[in-house]
Amino acid sequence: MSVSERSIGIPYGPVILLRNREQLIALRVVAAPTAGYAIEYEWKTAPVMSNRFALDDSGTGTTEETRGLGVVKAGPVQFKWSRASRNSGFLYWPQGSKDLSVCSVTWANVDGIDLQNPKIYWYTQDMFRR
User: Can you give the C-alpha Rg of the chain in angstroms?
Assistant: First the structure.
């Protein structure tokens, strides 16, 4: 995963973790056809303190690049998206994303998320502004 002032480079397959105020959002791209510029994704949310992702607060979606960008809606946040390769893409920080951060660690599945992992670092868009 790579993070910059403009975007979050995400791998397809692993779960990425976002934090929006007091809510965690687990997001995973589940399919990225080799032909075309579309993805299918799933997401789940949990309160920051519980780390328990509920099935009733989850969803799925698809998006396709239109005029160079698609839209990924994951719980309370919405990102512009573009394809980088067969295996990765970019989520673009939403406007006014001051309370949004992305975790430096990815996981194979939601059940494996461990917020006690010492390798975790939370990136924010403001970290890259001068």
Answer: 14
User: Six-digit token pair at 73?
Assistant: 């809606």
pTM over 0.85, yes/no = yes
Give per-residue pLDDT as tens, 48-106: 877 677 666 899 999 999 888 999 999 989 999 999 988 999 999 998 778 999 999 99
Tokens 């996981």 belong to residue? 107
Q: Find the distance separating the first CA and the last CA of the chain, reported in whole Å.
A: 22
- 70-74 β-sheet, strand order: 2-3, 7-11, 88-92, 77-83, 70-74
Specify whether the backbone of 75 is left (phi greater than 0), alpha (psi in -120 to 50) or beta: left
Structure-block tokens of residue 99: 């309370």
